[in-house]
Design goal:
Order of helices and strands: HHHHHHHHHHH
Shape: globular
Number of strands: 0
Number of helices: 11
Oligomer: single chain
Structural class: mainly alpha
Largest sheet: none
Helix content: over 70%
Radius of gyration: 18 Å
Number of domains: 1
Length: 239
């Protein structure tokens, strides 16, 4: 996706890959959450309204992610540019909605059974930080297409952990669940890196940044969750 679009034409060559990646990611997101509901693991009508709003905004972002890549692939740069700022607005809404949804999950004792409240809060916080970091970098580099589209792809990958959490048998994975989710995310990064090697003979440095951020996002969760700040925050919300 090239959400906050470039002011110069985006080369058509290579955009088909990003469109394909966006479709694969959207399928992962919709398939993960959809299968969770179809298996009866969540009572959709009884979900709090803010969860529905959070889900609607996230699905809208995901579909716009695909749309932006499709527009770039077709060369419809003017529309791509205008919709880019719509994507920025959705992203701005996703952050407070993510904070609210994670916090209220602890308050209402709706944290998934395979997470402790501190782990859940730390995971949610790091996911949002990773997303904002990569998205902000992509927007700042929107006139440098090769950086922009790769950072946007990594930003999207950074927030699909919850989808993998609904696809993978988390209750069976135990303490390895977090690593399994991160591995799913890194698989998308690995595909992108492989594409760079095949298509260009080298890996663009944007993927190094994206991979580093996603790795920190995953590996730092237990460390952050064990800090007095997150232990105390989880206890205060649950109490």
């Amino acid at each position: 996706m090239d959400a906050a679009a470039s002011t110069v034409p985006v080369p058509i060559r290579g955009n088909g890959f990003y469109l394909g990646m966006s479709v694969a990611i959207a399928a992962t997101v919709i398939g993960g959450f959809g299968s969770f509901a179809l298996r009866g693991l969540v009572d959709v009508p009884r979900l709090p309204y803010w969860v529905h709003v959070h889900g609607a905004v996230f699905v809208s972002w995901t579909l716009l992610f695909v749309t932006q890549n499709a527009l770039a692939h077709r060369g419809s740069i003017a529309l791509h540019r205008r919709l880019g700022w719509v994507a920025v607005g959705l992203a701005a809404a996703m952050v407070p909605l993510g904070v609210l949804t994670a916090s209220m999950a602890v308050v209402l004792d709706r944290v998934p059974s395979f997470f402790t409240p501190p782990i859940f809060l730390a995971l949610s916080a790091l996911e949002l930080v990773a997303f904002v970091t990569l998205l902000t970098s992509a927007i700042r580099l929107r006139r440098r297409t090769e950086w922009h589209r790769r950072l946007m792809l990594c930003a999207m990958i950074s927030i699909i952990g919850p989808a993998f959490g609904r696809i993978l048998p988390m209750s069976l994975l135990g303490p390895w669940g977090g690593l399994a989710v991160m591995s799913g995310q890194m698989l998308f990064v690995a595909v992108a890196v492989a594409h760079d090697l095949v298509a260009h003979g080298r890996v663009h440095p944007a993927y190094g940044i994206g991979a580093a951020v996603i790795l920190v996002e995953g590996l730092a969760v237990p460390i952050l969750a064990a800090t007095p700040l997150f232990v105390g925050l989880a206890a205060a919300l649950a109490g």
